[in-house]
Design a protein that fits this description.
The protein is mostly helical. It folds into three domains: 16-133, no CATH class; 190-236; 240-274. Helices cover 65% and strands 2% of the residues. The longest helix is centred in the last third of the chain and has 35 residues, at 239-273.
């Protein structure tokens, strides 16, 4: 499954997620090969079986998940794209053995990381993405991308509900709006301080975390970036505050006009009296 086609030099299925799965399996098989050949040749069969019991369970589980081997049905095929990502995620949730979980985590993590770095990070930081295989759940609607009216905001990017990763279901709408905002800001005002900050610093605010330490580091990195961006861009824009300032400016202007009018009237009155 993980071998490249000798003619095309491509994987069996297209897409970055499947390619990363194949790379992860190759790395695991190298570990498996190293673990097996490190066992002494003069060991008894029962001892060999006992020493490799955990590895056998890992390989059997992986073969079942990847739907390869003698127990696999001919009609079953390995999923790819986000379907594969959801499939692996659900399999991890269904395991209770610590060793098997660690192995599957080591395979799932790079698949999630490629999704985070290639799609989510690009969309949230730059407002754009490159998705030649249709793996990202944000879908550009080509006929609206060239429009410059309200439909650009409402219709140019939409969610493909059937390929939203299970672990992002609750965040899909926020992800869509955030990317839309950055995309529109880049289009209307590419010299904006926030755009310059995002492109210049390229902050690490989004990555796949499977340990508490990694999550803590990510939270610290995100907080640091937020403070730096706030200092560079100023306080958060508020339409309510903007309208209040406009109203205050109007009142001040009207008061100034009233004062000048009063001064003019007094001057005219003085002239008439004299």
């Amino acid at each position: 499954m993980s071998a490249l086609n000798p003619t095309t030099r491509k994987h069996k299925y297209p897409g970055y997620v499947f390619a990363e799965l194949c790379e992860s399996i190759c790395r695991y098989l190298q570990f498996y090969h190293t673990a097996v050949i490190s066992i002494h040749d003069n060991i008894h069969f029962l001892d060999f079986h006992e020493k490799t019991r955990q590895i056998q369970a890992q390989v059997t589980t992986l073969a079942t998940i990847c739907k390869v081997g003698p127990s696999a049905s001919e009609t079953e095929q390995t999923q790819h794209g986000v379907v594969l990502l959801n499939y692996l995620y659900q399999k991890v949730l269904g395991l209770s053995d610590k060793n098997l979980c660690n192995v599957l985590y080591s395979i799932l993590y790079p698949c999630c990381q490629i999704y985070f770095s290639r799609f989510l990070h690009q969309w949230l930081i730059k407002g754009t993405f490159n998705d030649p295989h249709g793996e990202f759940f944000v879908n550009p609607t080509r006929k609206y991308l060239t429009t410059r009216c309200r439909t650009y905001w409402t219709r140019s990017y939409e969610i493909k509900e059937d390929i939203v990763p299970d672990f992002l279901v609750n965040l899909k709408d926020q992800i869509l709006v955030c990317g839309r905002l950055i995309n529109l800001l880049q289009l209307c005002n590419p010299g904006n301080n926030l755009c310059a900050c995002l492109i210049g610093k390229n902050p690490l605010v989004l990555t796949c975390c499977i340990t508490r330490d990694k999550l803590t580091q990510l939270e610290q990195s995100a907080s640091k970036y937020y403070l730096e961006a706030s200092m560079q861009c100023g306080s958060k824009f508020s339409f309510t505050r903007y309208l209040e300032r406009s109203r205050e400016s109007d009142i001040t202007y009207l008061q100034l006009i009233a004062k000048k009018r009063a001064v003019t009237l007094r001057r005219l009155e003085c002239k008439l009296i004299n």
